[in-house]
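Minutes, methods subgroup
Present: GH (chair), OT, SY

1. OT presented the first of two proteins processed in the latest run. Sequence and structure tokens recorded below as shown on screen.
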Amino acid sequence: MARPAGDPQQPGARPSGRETGGGTDGAPDAELDRIASFLSRLTGLLLRTSGEGSELIAREVGAAGRALGAEVSVLLVMDTVTLTVTVPDGRTRTVIVYAAPEVARLDRIAALKPLVADVCAGRAGTAEASARLDRIEAAPAPYPWWLKLLGIVLFSLGFAPLMQPTWYELGTTAVLATLAAALAVASDRVPRLARVLPLVASLVVSVVTLELFAGDPAHGGPVLLMLPALFFFVPGDYLSAAAAELGAGLIATGAIRLVYAVFLLVQLCVGVLLGVYGTGTSTRALFDTAADADLPRWVLFASWTVFTVGTLLAFAIPRRFFWHLLALVYLTVAVQSAATKLVGETGGTFVAAVVLAAVATLLSRGPDRPPRLLLVLPGFFTLTVGSLGMRGLTTLAGGHVVDGFSDLLELVLVVTAIAVGLVLGATLVPDRRAGEEPPVPSS
């Protein structure tokens, strides 16, 4: 699960550029500067919202550049893009764009899709496109802070039965997720907190869990009690996006994203361990044995609706896309459950990822349809890859070597299954547009 990478208004998260090129001052150079400026800002916004993968950037920026009369060369790594914009007479501008990838404001991705479509179709020139981009960047989040807080809580509550289908798990998650959500909302206003948010959130959740909720082993292991509240910060999407980018040939981007995802997982694990040390609890208490289920089936079924509502609010997804997201969440769960019975857990996850990617790609066709990222994201979260990493690390740190390595091995298998499944699904139903090459699939 992706967490905010920091306040997008801070210098490290906003595009900055360096321009070079020939020519003399005058109207032609001014137009080239306007094109380069628009493309660099478009790139910065796409890069800043690329927590789920970066293949979209080169395609969208290249198509927009051609529509405006320029050829664009894109050199991409995870948090940096170098653009070389060339017009027919040979004049060029080179712009370097920096931004920290995240998925906190997906309303901007939704707004960018019709803008890029209008530019590519010739319905918007440089001036109009820049003005519309101004409005997208200046627009406030679609939901107030308290709805984002509620969304993170609902997101965690919807996920909780997947860890342990018990009423106790739901009750503890409601308390712990409220604490984690308050920290996430506070980090939007306190950039220094945003830099260490996963560590602080896992420390707070660990302390409260061990002091208040983990006294009776019959309620399940402390790790399983903590995980739903920390799901918002667990980088399962980064892990799968990294594997998908590696599989698609985006080696530098995928490798850097993989290292960053592992770093975030370790940061969460360190926070949990600091909570263990701070409360004087033995690390042997970090086991992940599940309690006996006592939730009725209707609660398990309804939890995915709660989860989808939470995803919508937590990630600022426009509410008009709710029914698309809900249908894909239930489709992914149904396919995974059915396929798991036939081919096992890893095989079921692979089949679910293929179906999710194919259906999402199909439904995203057309400028008025939801972007593919928005359609894939909630269904992807149901595959729970990131939680396996945190379970494995914390259980291993608790001295439960066999269980810890089993979770980590399962993590490797599931990450690979999801990544290859997403690539295959996008290949089966390519998102091809007129005049464009098929995209390189990514998460």
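2. SY then presented the second protein from the same run.
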Amino acid sequence: MNLTRRQREILHLIARGMTSKEIAQQLKSTPGSINNHIMASIAALGADSRSEAVTKALRLGLVRSEASALADLAQER
């Protein structure tokens, strides 16, 4: 199961609690395009929902949690 960089990025932003509209604004895209990436991610992960896709991506290490990213930054300093 391969996710594109963009799909992983979008799942990460969903994990941070962002809506499709907010993600579209941040990535300078359209909500429709973002939703297409989300649906492709859901299908690729064999998930039934956005939240399940995020959970599976986190579990598989395809997306990092915010806490994990912050811990890595703290270690780098």
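Chair's summary of item 2: Helices lie at 5-15, 20-27, 31-45, 50-59, 66-76.
Next meeting: continue with the remaining queue.
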